[in-house]
Structure formats: structure tokens, C-alpha cells
């Protein structure tokens, strides 16, 4: 019988984060860890973040694009939490000194005007609850060595949350075509990857609906005023000290980051 519990897993993952140490996947020692329990671990880590003074600012989706799913060899999207401690001020470098092995990915971000509660939310209903759409950059940082994990592992680990940045241009949803919104990923002046919003579940609004419906299974909802990161559009890129990373969106502007 496994000696792992929700409490022990939450303590272990938050300690890895605080101490900047990586580890083997929890499922190596707790192979029976199921998704429901993994989300309980995720919620327990959120409870502890809030207890130490962080504030919940939104929701993030992970593994919503084929590029990300193929890289991680996991075919199901997942949902996790964003707190204010993860916000990266514009112009700040990737906080390499507090992270283990950060990687950066471009995302489409929604700012919610209304509460969105599943089940049964459609993409159109989801979009109707959005106030503004932004470009975003997520700095992911798995607590698992070499980013090796199963779906329950990464759910428990709050979907590799690290830091995130929201761009300066906020458009109303009707001002752009989310499926055609393109991003070019540039590193040190060289374009290394590209995608459009269609990479994210066919339409980022589908990802938003998915998040609301998924949260509803736990009796939760996306609240007005919260941000939703809809998931990496491309594979994530490493952010070594000194690297100059830019995500150029077709309508939402550019986000510039330096490796730290
Ligand atoms: O580490 C990971 O790539 C899992 C989190 C996925 C984040 C994303 O797809 O946006
Ligand atoms: Mg992401």
C-alpha cells in the first residue's frame, strides 16, 4: 500500500518549488494516483498558497495544443490555478533564480467580464463572458526532473506553473479572429516556431469552455475579473540567462522577455 497522501504530495511539491529542487514523478512511487486525487493535491497546494498570503487571480489550461501534447506525450488538457505571486511585471526577466528549469510559451489570455460556470458551457457562451483578449507568455517550471510526468503528476503539480506575463493590448473578442490570431516565436533574432489560435483546441474559446466545464466537476467556476491562460500555442522554449525571447502576435502585439 502507498504511504503517499494528498497532504504529503502537496508538501513535497511545494518544497521542491521553494527549494528549487526537482524530483522523480510522484506516480513512480504512487502508481495508483488517479486524476480526482491529483486535483485534490492541486487544490491543497492552492489552499496553502492562499494561506501564505497569495491571491487567486485566475485559471490556466495546459496541454491544449497538439504541439504541447506531443512534446509531453499526454493527450488530455488540464486545468490549474494562477496566483498573484506568479505575475511577472512587464520588462522583468524570466525569474531564473527562483525557478528550476524554466521554459517559455506563447498563449492567448482572456480577462473575464462575467462568471462562467459549467457544465454544458459552449465556446460561444464562453466568449460572451469575456471582457478582453490579450497576448500572454507563460514561464513553465515543472517540479519533475526533465519535465518527465504523467497526467496525474502534472495535475498535482499545478500544471508546471511558474510565472506569467500579460501583454499590453487588450481587444474585445469581436475585434479579432481567435482562430487566425498568429504568433511567431523569436529567439535571439531568429524565428524558431509559429502557430495560430486554431492550435488551441481548434479555438481558444473552446479551451475556455473546457476549463469552465472541467471546474464544474469540482463545483468550481471561473469568476468575473479572473484571467484565463488558454495553454501554450507552440512548444515551450528554454530561457537561458541572456536569451532574448519575443512572441509576436498578429493583432495582440509583441511580448519581449529576457532569459534570467
Ligand atoms: O509542463 C508542461 O508543459 C505542462 C503544462 C502545460 C502548459 C501549457 O500547455 O500551457
Ligand atoms: Mg502554459
TrEMBL record:
Hydrolase as UniProt keyword: no
Broad enzyme group: lyase
EC identifiers of the protein: 4.1.1.77
Protein name per UniProt: 2-oxo-3-hexenedioate decarboxylase
Highest taxon in the source lineage: Bacteria
Stored InterPro entries: Fumarylacetoacetase_C_sf, Hydratase-Decarb/MhpD_sf
Keywords for this protein: Lyase
A GO term for molecular function: 4-oxalocrotonate decarboxylase activity
SUPFAM superfamilies listed in its UniProt record: FAH
